[in-house]
Amino acid sequence: MNIQLSITEQCNLRCSYCYYKETHAKRCAVMSDEVMEATVSLAVQKCIEQKQPDLNITFFGGEPLLRMDFIKKTVKLTKGLVKSHRAELPRDFTLSFVVNTNGTLFTDEIVRYLKKEKFLVYLSIDGPERKHNISRKTADGKGSFKAIRPFIPAMVDLKAVVLMVVTQRHVRGLAESVKWVFRQGFKSVATCVDFDGSWTGEDFDSLVVEYEKLARFWYNAKKRGSDIYLGTIQDKVTMTFLGVRQKHYTCYMNPDSLAVAANGNTFPCTRFISSQKDAPYVTGNVFDMRSGIYKGVLPRDVRRFMEKDRKECGGCAIRQRCLAHECGCTSFYTTGTLDKVSPEVCTHERILCAICDEYAAKLQGICGPESVL
Q1: Whose CA is closest to 218, among 188, 239, 184, 250?
Q2: Could you tell me which of 294, 295, 261, 293 has the C-alpha nearest to residue 280?
Q3: pTM of structure
Q4: Cβ-count burial of 301 within 10 angstroms (0-12 exposed, 13-18 middle, 19+ buried)?
Q5: Residues whose CB is less than 8 angstroms from the CB of residue 301 and which lie 6 or more positions away in sequence, other chains included
Q6: Domain coordinates of the chain in residue numbers?
Q7: pLDDT per residue over 62-93, tens digit each?
Q8: Strand order of the sheet with strand 94-101?
Q9: How many Å apart are CA 64 and CA 11, to the nearest integer?
């Protein structure tokens, strides 16, 4: 079971592409101890009732490291609940913690704590300093890279996963930025395009060039037996090898995943989270469990999205590996609804899948899918 806690909407950065710019505009909501305790209790209860073999709790925001004491309190409470209910949980039950962070607030103490509790860290870095500082600026407009740089070796040691956002201003030279991240010692990197509705044909032409370079880099690394993970290429290839669709492979939008806003409202995915009144796609509130009425039922339009293919995508050979068809949060933040397809995302996915299929065929002919999986 996956629980994502939006423990604060406050952030010390003002990234140009932040998808919470509107829903978190006031940047003041923080999760209370009561909401956290109700959520953790609900999570452990559901693990017992549904015989879930694991519980993963992710802290995000805003910037979650602004509330380091709250993170520690949550970890302590959860571990205590798991210990007290150990006999009721599956024998091999596992508990794990994740934090999504911009990396600007690390201290030696925080790093030691994350290592001690075996946190998985998702770290936002957009490449070397010049590239990173294009969009990831502090509240007073300064680049944020210098605050991250001293802790890059520590993050490599923690096996952090690097998340890179690609805007039109980042696309030229993207492959070199990704290679730079790997040269720092990181083993796992994923890139995500900022679909803002303004990508031009020229921008996509540049992206084709960069994706070709990335695919070639990944292909050569896999031929050498490297264990690097480049999600941009590797996830599409893996889905082809396994014959699985993106909804089932990378999506957390299901009844076994709970994204919790600062006010306790629950959502099927972190992209939908908002503590604003009348936010769409609310599935309930964690306090409902006290009266026994919380069911964690997905809204009808969410269930329809998860269970049925879009008519306009019928016949498309890549639809089950396509973000435009398969990813609800991508649909939501690019079109404002689950019911529409973004032409921009569609174009991107056709480009990426064509390149990935070419290199998947090459790799399969040389060393087989086991070298990727």
Answers
A1: 188
A2: 261
A3: 0.93
A4: middle
A5: 281, 338, 339
A6: 1-101+255-297
A7: 999 999 999 999 999 999 999 999 999 999 99
A8: 229-230, 188-193, 161-166, 120-124, 94-101, 54-60, 2-6, 257-260, 265-267, 284-285
A9: 8
